[in-house]
Amino acid sequence: MNATSLAMNRSASLAVSHATPTVFVVDDDVSVRESLELLIESAGWEAEVFASGQEFLARPRALTPSCLVLDVVLPDLSGCDLQRLLSDRADMPIIFLTGHADVPTTVRAMKAGAVEFFTKPFASDALVTAIRSAIDRSCAALQEALELRSLRESYATVTPREREVMALVVAGRLNKQVAGELGISEITVKAHRGKVMQKMGTRSLAQLVRLAERLYLAPVVN
Questions:
Q1: Per residue in 7-58, pLDDT tens?
Q2: Residue among 56, 66, 57, 63 nearest 23 (CA)
Q3: What are the pLDDT digits (tens) for 149-194?
Q4: 82-86: long-range contacts at Cβ-Cβ below 8 A with a sequence spacing of 24 or more?
Q5: What is the CATH number of the domain that holds 203?
Q6: Which of 145, 172, 203 is a domain's end point?
Q7: Domain count, the chain
Q8: Sign of CA pseudo-dihedral 31, 35, 36, 38
Q9: By residue range, what is the domain housing residue 106?
């Protein structure tokens, strides 16, 4: 990555690590919302509470570490329906609450990525521990998104010819083979390869291969 991208990425990373995490609560029971709000704030996090899934969806996406404490049964969208709508939000892990044990729902929610599933009444310390784990996951997801964005910005500076060379190099082709496939000289291949390494901020082929895997295979996080 170039110096500008690295500096921006470092600045954004510091902002993420120093931001106060937000714990969202979606539950139609006002007493549950109030007790969770007190518990969350006493643990040192920001709390935002909502009475329905639609009310929560109307809130702009959070740009800080966060997690969602979500009731299974809601007046509009069910908790599982809301979880599906938020399936692209890896930076906001979900902890489910339910008024009664429901094994199929629990299994479905956990397979869809839920951090934990609590039956009311729940132990406060256990919920706080689960929230802390969810926030750690959120921080990691946000950091990954920042790194991928910086990586894509660096890749955007690579010319079309350099991208052709890069693709063949990370696929295991030797300089001579790359030259033959692209109809250019080995000296030109070496020059393009050097430019790619410089622009992508890599010092070895192994590093370049790892970055290429992230570029081509990792999902985009908006």
A1: 445 554 545 556 899 999 999 999 999 999 999 999 999 999 999 999 999 9
A2: 66
A3: 899 999 999 999 999 999 999 999 999 999 999 999 999 999 999 9
A4: 82/26, 82/53, 82/56, 82/57, 83/109, 83/112, 83/113, 83/114, 84/112, 85/53, 85/57
A5: 1.10.10.10
A6: 145
A7: 2
A8: positive
A9: 3-145
pTM assigned to the model: 0.72
Both tokens assigned to 179: 């030259």
Sequence length of the chain is 222
Distance between CA atoms of residues 83 and 66, nearest Å: 15
* Adjacent-strand bridge partners of 49: 25
